[in-house]
Design brief:
The protein has 17 helices and 7 strands. The protein is of the alpha/beta class. The protein has 3 domains: 5-150, Beta Polymerase, domain 2, CATH 3.30.460; 167-289; 291-402, no CATH class. The strands form 2 sheets. It has a 4-stranded mixed beta sheet. A 3-stranded mixed beta sheet has the order 3-2-7, covered by helices on one side. The longest helix is centred in the C-terminal third of the chain and has 27 residues, at 257-283.
Length: 402
Protein backbone atom coordinates (compact mmCIF):
# COMPACT_ATOMS: atom_id res chain seq x y z
CA UNK A 1 0.00 0.00 0.00
CA UNK A 2 1.42 3.39 -0.99
CA UNK A 3 1.58 6.04 1.69
CA UNK A 4 -0.72 9.04 1.22
CA UNK A 5 0.71 12.51 0.72
CA UNK A 6 -0.34 13.39 4.30
CA UNK A 7 1.56 10.37 5.66
CA UNK A 8 4.62 11.27 3.62
CA UNK A 9 4.61 14.82 4.99
CA UNK A 10 4.10 13.57 8.53
CA UNK A 11 6.89 11.01 8.27
CA UNK A 12 9.25 13.58 6.75
CA UNK A 13 8.47 16.01 9.57
CA UNK A 14 9.06 13.39 12.27
CA UNK A 15 12.28 12.36 10.54
CA UNK A 16 13.41 16.00 10.51
CA UNK A 17 12.56 16.34 14.20
CA UNK A 18 14.50 13.22 15.18
CA UNK A 19 17.44 14.33 13.05
CA UNK A 20 17.51 17.39 15.32
CA UNK A 21 18.42 15.23 18.31
CA UNK A 22 22.15 15.51 17.60
CA UNK A 23 22.46 18.12 20.35
CA UNK A 24 20.77 15.83 22.82
CA UNK A 25 22.99 12.92 21.79
CA UNK A 26 26.10 15.09 22.18
CA UNK A 27 24.95 16.30 25.60
CA UNK A 28 24.22 12.83 26.97
CA UNK A 29 27.38 11.34 25.45
CA UNK A 30 29.43 14.00 27.24
CA UNK A 31 27.58 13.68 30.55
CA UNK A 32 27.82 9.87 30.52
CA UNK A 33 31.51 9.69 29.54
CA UNK A 34 32.76 9.36 33.15
CA UNK A 35 30.42 6.39 33.59
CA UNK A 36 31.51 4.58 30.45
CA UNK A 37 29.18 5.83 27.70
CA UNK A 38 28.33 3.01 25.28
CA UNK A 39 25.37 4.17 23.18
CA UNK A 40 22.17 6.19 23.06
CA UNK A 41 19.02 4.64 21.59
CA UNK A 42 15.85 6.29 20.34
CA UNK A 43 12.86 4.16 21.30
CA UNK A 44 9.08 4.55 21.33
CA UNK A 45 6.88 5.85 18.53
CA UNK A 46 9.48 8.24 17.13
CA UNK A 47 11.86 5.38 16.39
CA UNK A 48 9.13 3.99 14.12
CA UNK A 49 8.26 7.33 12.51
CA UNK A 50 4.90 7.28 14.31
CA UNK A 51 5.18 10.39 16.48
CA UNK A 52 2.46 12.95 17.12
CA UNK A 53 2.43 16.23 15.24
CA UNK A 54 0.76 19.52 16.09
CA UNK A 55 -0.35 21.67 13.15
CA UNK A 56 0.63 25.30 13.80
CA UNK A 57 0.64 28.47 11.65
CA UNK A 58 4.37 27.97 11.12
CA UNK A 59 4.00 24.31 10.13
CA UNK A 60 3.81 20.92 11.88
CA UNK A 61 5.93 20.39 14.98
CA UNK A 62 6.72 17.42 17.17
CA UNK A 63 4.21 16.88 19.95
CA UNK A 64 5.01 13.89 22.13
CA UNK A 65 7.55 12.40 24.49
CA UNK A 66 10.97 11.38 23.20
CA UNK A 67 11.95 7.99 24.64
CA UNK A 68 15.72 7.61 24.97
CA UNK A 69 17.73 4.72 26.41
CA UNK A 70 21.27 5.46 27.55
CA UNK A 71 23.59 2.44 27.86
CA UNK A 72 26.64 2.80 30.11
CA UNK A 73 29.33 0.51 31.47
CA UNK A 74 28.75 1.65 35.06
CA UNK A 75 25.73 2.63 37.14
CA UNK A 76 24.82 6.28 37.59
CA UNK A 77 24.49 7.98 41.00
CA UNK A 78 20.88 8.44 42.19
CA UNK A 79 19.15 11.43 40.64
CA UNK A 80 21.70 11.85 37.85
CA UNK A 81 19.46 10.47 35.09
CA UNK A 82 16.60 12.79 36.09
CA UNK A 83 18.90 15.82 35.95
CA UNK A 84 20.11 14.84 32.49
CA UNK A 85 16.53 14.22 31.37
CA UNK A 86 15.59 17.76 32.29
CA UNK A 87 18.64 19.17 30.51
CA UNK A 88 17.77 17.22 27.37
CA UNK A 89 14.15 18.43 27.52
CA UNK A 90 15.36 22.04 27.57
CA UNK A 91 17.30 21.39 24.37
CA UNK A 92 14.36 19.96 22.40
CA UNK A 93 11.75 22.29 23.94
CA UNK A 94 13.36 25.44 25.44
CA UNK A 95 9.99 26.87 26.49
CA UNK A 96 8.69 23.64 28.01
CA UNK A 97 7.48 23.91 31.64
CA UNK A 98 8.06 20.17 32.06
CA UNK A 99 9.83 19.23 35.28
CA UNK A 100 8.58 15.69 35.84
CA UNK A 101 5.61 16.65 38.04
CA UNK A 102 3.03 15.19 35.65
CA UNK A 103 2.46 11.64 34.53
CA UNK A 104 1.30 12.61 31.04
CA UNK A 105 2.50 16.16 30.31
CA UNK A 106 1.43 18.09 27.26
CA UNK A 107 4.01 18.79 24.57
CA UNK A 108 7.48 17.44 23.73
CA UNK A 109 9.82 16.29 26.49
CA UNK A 110 12.52 13.66 26.99
CA UNK A 111 11.99 10.44 28.94
CA UNK A 112 15.41 8.97 29.71
CA UNK A 113 16.04 5.39 30.82
CA UNK A 114 19.55 4.23 31.74
CA UNK A 115 20.78 0.64 31.42
CA UNK A 116 24.14 -0.87 32.34
CA UNK A 117 25.52 -2.77 29.36
CA UNK A 118 25.49 -6.15 31.10
CA UNK A 119 21.70 -6.01 31.38
CA UNK A 120 21.10 -5.91 27.62
CA UNK A 121 21.44 -9.69 27.36
CA UNK A 122 19.23 -10.26 30.41
CA UNK A 123 16.30 -7.93 29.83
CA UNK A 124 12.89 -9.24 30.93
CA UNK A 125 10.19 -9.48 28.30
CA UNK A 126 8.22 -6.30 28.89
CA UNK A 127 6.33 -4.23 26.32
CA UNK A 128 9.00 -1.52 26.40
CA UNK A 129 11.81 -4.04 25.91
CA UNK A 130 9.91 -5.75 23.08
CA UNK A 131 9.61 -2.41 21.28
CA UNK A 132 13.24 -1.68 22.08
CA UNK A 133 14.19 -4.38 19.58
CA UNK A 134 13.20 -1.84 16.90
CA UNK A 135 15.07 1.09 18.45
CA UNK A 136 17.32 3.43 16.47
CA UNK A 137 20.95 4.15 17.41
CA UNK A 138 21.52 7.89 17.86
CA UNK A 139 25.12 7.74 19.09
CA UNK A 140 27.75 5.19 20.05
CA UNK A 141 27.98 1.50 19.30
CA UNK A 142 25.17 -0.51 17.70
CA UNK A 143 24.31 -2.91 20.51
CA UNK A 144 20.92 -3.96 19.18
CA UNK A 145 22.24 -7.39 18.08
CA UNK A 146 23.37 -7.99 21.68
CA UNK A 147 19.90 -7.44 23.11
CA UNK A 148 17.51 -10.10 24.28
CA UNK A 149 15.09 -11.11 21.51
CA UNK A 150 11.41 -11.78 22.19
CA UNK A 151 8.37 -13.22 20.43
CA UNK A 152 4.94 -11.53 20.65
CA UNK A 153 3.46 -14.47 22.56
CA UNK A 154 6.13 -14.04 25.26
CA UNK A 155 4.89 -10.61 26.37
CA UNK A 156 3.20 -11.18 29.76
CA UNK A 157 -0.50 -10.48 30.34
CA UNK A 158 0.64 -8.14 33.11
CA UNK A 159 1.99 -5.77 30.45
CA UNK A 160 -1.43 -5.43 28.83
CA UNK A 161 -3.05 -4.57 32.16
CA UNK A 162 -0.28 -2.10 33.00
CA UNK A 163 -0.71 -0.39 29.61
CA UNK A 164 -4.46 -0.08 30.09
CA UNK A 165 -4.03 1.17 33.65
CA UNK A 166 -1.54 3.77 32.47
CA UNK A 167 -3.96 5.03 29.83
CA UNK A 168 -6.75 5.20 32.42
CA UNK A 169 -4.53 7.41 34.58
CA UNK A 170 -3.54 9.58 31.60
CA UNK A 171 -7.21 10.22 30.86
CA UNK A 172 -7.80 11.00 34.54
CA UNK A 173 -4.90 13.45 34.65
CA UNK A 174 -5.84 15.24 31.44
CA UNK A 175 -9.43 15.94 32.56
CA UNK A 176 -9.71 19.43 33.94
CA UNK A 177 -11.47 22.78 33.76
CA UNK A 178 -12.16 24.41 30.36
CA UNK A 179 -9.04 26.56 30.26
CA UNK A 180 -6.14 27.08 27.85
CA UNK A 181 -4.50 23.82 26.82
CA UNK A 182 -6.91 21.47 28.59
CA UNK A 183 -8.98 20.67 25.49
CA UNK A 184 -5.91 19.70 23.45
CA UNK A 185 -4.51 17.67 26.35
CA UNK A 186 -7.76 15.70 26.73
CA UNK A 187 -8.08 15.20 22.98
CA UNK A 188 -4.49 13.96 22.64
CA UNK A 189 -4.82 11.40 25.43
CA UNK A 190 -8.21 10.27 24.14
CA UNK A 191 -6.51 9.33 20.85
CA UNK A 192 -3.70 7.50 22.67
CA UNK A 193 -6.22 5.61 24.81
CA UNK A 194 -8.06 4.24 21.77
CA UNK A 195 -4.80 3.26 20.03
CA UNK A 196 -3.39 1.51 23.09
CA UNK A 197 -6.66 -0.27 23.85
CA UNK A 198 -6.10 -2.17 20.62
CA UNK A 199 -2.42 -2.74 21.44
CA UNK A 200 -3.29 -4.24 24.83
CA UNK A 201 -5.79 -6.66 23.32
CA UNK A 202 -3.19 -7.79 20.78
CA UNK A 203 -0.68 -8.40 23.59
CA UNK A 204 -3.16 -10.70 25.35
CA UNK A 205 -3.78 -12.57 22.10
CA UNK A 206 -0.05 -12.99 21.40
CA UNK A 207 -0.30 -10.97 18.17
CA UNK A 208 1.31 -7.68 19.17
CA UNK A 209 3.78 -5.98 16.81
CA UNK A 210 5.67 -2.72 17.15
CA UNK A 211 4.66 -1.20 13.82
CA UNK A 212 1.36 0.69 14.06
CA UNK A 213 0.62 0.05 10.40
CA UNK A 214 1.01 -3.69 10.89
CA UNK A 215 -1.04 -3.62 14.11
CA UNK A 216 -3.94 -1.90 12.35
CA UNK A 217 -3.91 -4.50 9.59
CA UNK A 218 -4.20 -7.32 12.16
CA UNK A 219 -6.44 -5.65 14.73
CA UNK A 220 -9.83 -6.43 13.21
CA UNK A 221 -9.12 -10.16 12.95
CA UNK A 222 -7.87 -10.30 16.55
CA UNK A 223 -10.84 -8.39 17.96
CA UNK A 224 -13.44 -10.36 16.00
CA UNK A 225 -11.90 -13.68 17.02
CA UNK A 226 -11.11 -13.00 20.68
CA UNK A 227 -13.13 -9.99 21.87
CA UNK A 228 -16.55 -9.96 20.16
CA UNK A 229 -18.11 -8.20 23.17
CA UNK A 230 -15.95 -5.14 22.43
CA UNK A 231 -17.37 -4.86 18.91
CA UNK A 232 -20.86 -5.46 20.29
CA UNK A 233 -20.39 -2.41 22.55
CA UNK A 234 -18.29 -0.36 20.08
CA UNK A 235 -19.03 -1.64 16.55
CA UNK A 236 -16.87 1.09 14.99
CA UNK A 237 -13.85 0.35 17.20
CA UNK A 238 -11.57 -0.60 14.28
CA UNK A 239 -12.43 2.60 12.43
CA UNK A 240 -11.91 4.56 15.65
CA UNK A 241 -8.41 3.09 16.08
CA UNK A 242 -7.51 3.81 12.47
CA UNK A 243 -8.81 7.36 12.74
CA UNK A 244 -6.95 7.95 16.02
CA UNK A 245 -3.64 7.01 14.41
CA UNK A 246 -4.22 9.46 11.56
CA UNK A 247 -5.46 12.27 13.84
CA UNK A 248 -2.46 11.85 16.12
CA UNK A 249 -0.31 13.21 13.30
CA UNK A 250 -2.67 16.11 12.60
CA UNK A 251 -3.38 17.61 16.04
CA UNK A 252 -4.97 21.07 15.96
CA UNK A 253 -4.53 24.02 18.28
CA UNK A 254 -8.19 24.97 17.80
CA UNK A 255 -9.73 21.82 19.32
CA UNK A 256 -12.91 23.02 21.02
CA UNK A 257 -13.85 22.14 24.59
CA UNK A 258 -17.02 20.34 23.46
CA UNK A 259 -15.12 18.26 20.89
CA UNK A 260 -12.46 17.35 23.44
CA UNK A 261 -15.01 16.30 26.08
CA UNK A 262 -16.88 14.14 23.57
CA UNK A 263 -13.69 12.39 22.48
CA UNK A 264 -12.58 11.98 26.09
CA UNK A 265 -15.87 10.32 27.10
CA UNK A 266 -15.73 8.07 24.06
CA UNK A 267 -12.15 7.04 24.90
CA UNK A 268 -13.16 6.37 28.51
CA UNK A 269 -15.83 3.95 27.36
CA UNK A 270 -13.44 2.20 24.98
CA UNK A 271 -10.58 1.83 27.47
CA UNK A 272 -12.86 0.53 30.22
CA UNK A 273 -14.43 -2.02 27.88
CA UNK A 274 -10.96 -3.11 26.75
CA UNK A 275 -9.95 -3.45 30.41
CA UNK A 276 -13.02 -5.61 31.08
CA UNK A 277 -12.13 -7.85 28.15
CA UNK A 278 -8.51 -8.04 29.29
CA UNK A 279 -9.37 -8.93 32.87
CA UNK A 280 -11.83 -11.57 31.71
CA UNK A 281 -9.16 -13.14 29.50
CA UNK A 282 -6.26 -12.86 31.97
CA UNK A 283 -8.09 -13.72 35.19
CA UNK A 284 -10.88 -15.97 34.01
CA UNK A 285 -13.65 -13.66 35.27
CA UNK A 286 -16.93 -12.70 33.70
CA UNK A 287 -17.01 -9.41 31.82
CA UNK A 288 -20.29 -8.73 33.60
CA UNK A 289 -18.60 -8.79 37.02
CA UNK A 290 -18.90 -5.51 39.00
CA UNK A 291 -15.85 -3.29 38.96
CA UNK A 292 -15.21 -3.92 42.66
CA UNK A 293 -14.68 -7.62 41.93
CA UNK A 294 -12.63 -6.97 38.80
CA UNK A 295 -10.36 -4.43 40.53
CA UNK A 296 -9.89 -6.58 43.61
CA UNK A 297 -8.90 -9.59 41.52
CA UNK A 298 -6.50 -7.45 39.46
CA UNK A 299 -4.88 -6.10 42.63
CA UNK A 300 -4.32 -9.64 43.93
CA UNK A 301 -3.12 -11.01 40.59
CA UNK A 302 -0.62 -8.21 39.91
CA UNK A 303 1.23 -9.13 43.12
CA UNK A 304 0.96 -12.91 42.66
CA UNK A 305 3.88 -15.20 41.90
CA UNK A 306 2.51 -16.02 38.46
CA UNK A 307 2.27 -12.37 37.41
CA UNK A 308 5.69 -11.45 38.83
CA UNK A 309 7.42 -14.41 37.18
CA UNK A 310 5.83 -13.95 33.75
CA UNK A 311 8.35 -12.96 31.12
CA UNK A 312 11.22 -12.94 33.64
CA UNK A 313 13.83 -15.32 34.96
CA UNK A 314 12.08 -17.73 37.34
CA UNK A 315 14.52 -17.12 40.20
CA UNK A 316 14.10 -13.34 39.91
CA UNK A 317 10.31 -13.67 39.91
CA UNK A 318 10.45 -15.95 42.95
CA UNK A 319 12.75 -13.52 44.79
CA UNK A 320 10.44 -10.57 44.15
CA UNK A 321 7.36 -12.51 45.27
CA UNK A 322 9.11 -13.74 48.43
CA UNK A 323 10.32 -10.24 49.29
CA UNK A 324 6.83 -8.85 48.73
CA UNK A 325 5.17 -11.45 50.95
CA UNK A 326 7.72 -11.63 53.76
CA UNK A 327 8.96 -8.08 54.24
CA UNK A 328 6.48 -6.07 52.16
CA UNK A 329 9.21 -5.03 49.77
CA UNK A 330 9.58 -3.83 47.11
CA UNK A 331 6.77 -1.43 47.94
CA UNK A 332 6.57 -0.15 44.35
CA UNK A 333 4.92 -3.43 43.38
CA UNK A 334 2.18 -2.78 45.91
CA UNK A 335 1.96 0.79 44.64
CA UNK A 336 1.48 -0.35 41.05
CA UNK A 337 -1.21 -2.83 42.05
CA UNK A 338 -3.07 -0.33 44.24
CA UNK A 339 -3.03 2.41 41.62
CA UNK A 340 -4.18 0.06 38.86
CA UNK A 341 -7.02 -1.20 41.02
CA UNK A 342 -8.06 2.41 41.72
CA UNK A 343 -7.67 3.69 38.14
CA UNK A 344 -10.85 2.23 36.66
CA UNK A 345 -13.00 3.45 39.57
CA UNK A 346 -11.45 6.92 39.36
CA UNK A 347 -12.01 7.11 35.60
CA UNK A 348 -15.65 6.08 36.02
CA UNK A 349 -16.16 8.83 38.59
CA UNK A 350 -14.55 11.71 36.69
CA UNK A 351 -16.60 14.28 34.82
CA UNK A 352 -14.41 16.77 32.90
CA UNK A 353 -14.80 20.28 34.22
CA UNK A 354 -17.15 19.28 37.05
CA UNK A 355 -17.85 17.06 40.04
CA UNK A 356 -18.58 13.34 39.98
CA UNK A 357 -22.27 12.61 39.39
CA UNK A 358 -24.04 11.18 42.48
CA UNK A 359 -24.36 7.70 40.95
CA UNK A 360 -20.56 7.47 40.56
CA UNK A 361 -19.43 8.71 43.97
CA UNK A 362 -19.22 5.15 45.23
CA UNK A 363 -16.51 4.55 42.62
CA UNK A 364 -14.69 7.64 43.86
CA UNK A 365 -14.76 6.27 47.40
CA UNK A 366 -13.52 2.89 46.18
CA UNK A 367 -10.59 4.50 44.36
CA UNK A 368 -9.62 6.34 47.54
CA UNK A 369 -9.78 3.14 49.60
CA UNK A 370 -7.38 1.32 47.27
CA UNK A 371 -4.94 4.20 47.49
CA UNK A 372 -5.18 4.37 51.29
CA UNK A 373 -4.16 0.72 51.51
CA UNK A 374 -0.93 1.65 49.80
CA UNK A 375 -0.28 4.84 51.77
CA UNK A 376 -1.31 3.26 55.09
CA UNK A 377 -3.23 6.39 55.96
CA UNK A 378 -6.67 7.93 55.52
CA UNK A 379 -8.23 7.71 52.09
CA UNK A 380 -7.88 10.86 49.95
CA UNK A 381 -10.92 13.05 50.38
CA UNK A 382 -13.47 12.89 47.57
CA UNK A 383 -16.34 14.55 49.42
CA UNK A 384 -19.09 16.22 47.42
CA UNK A 385 -17.88 14.51 44.24
CA UNK A 386 -14.62 16.47 43.98
CA UNK A 387 -12.33 13.90 42.36
CA UNK A 388 -9.21 16.05 42.04
CA UNK A 389 -7.57 15.10 45.36
CA UNK A 390 -7.94 11.39 44.63
CA UNK A 391 -6.71 11.82 41.06
CA UNK A 392 -3.63 13.71 42.28
CA UNK A 393 -2.94 11.03 44.90
CA UNK A 394 -3.18 8.28 42.28
CA UNK A 395 -0.83 10.07 39.89
CA UNK A 396 1.65 10.78 42.70
CA UNK A 397 1.61 7.12 43.80
CA UNK A 398 2.13 5.95 40.22
CA UNK A 399 5.08 8.27 39.64
CA UNK A 400 6.74 6.94 42.80
CA UNK A 401 5.95 3.37 41.81
CA UNK A 402 7.63 3.53 38.40
Amino acid sequence: MRASSEEMVANATVQSATDGLEEVAALLSERAAPYGFVCLLLAGSLAQGQGSLLLTPTGPRLFNDIDLVLVTEHRLPPGMALAWEREATRLVAPDSPYDGDQLSPLGPHVDLAVLPRWRLRRLPCTLFNFDLQSARVLAGADLLPEMSRFRPDEIPAREALVLLGNRCLSLCESAGPPEAGTALWMYYHALKAVIDAGAALMILSGRYCTSQRERLSLLEGVVRADYPSLLARWPLFIEMAQGAVAERQQLRLDVSWGEAVARWREARGVILQALRCSLARALGLSERSPWAELSGSMHQWLTSYGALAQGRHALWGAARWTALRLVRRPRWLLAQAAVHAAAAHLLLAIEPGGESPPERRGDLTMAGLYLSRLAKGPAPDGCDGDWRAIRDAAVDCWKRAV
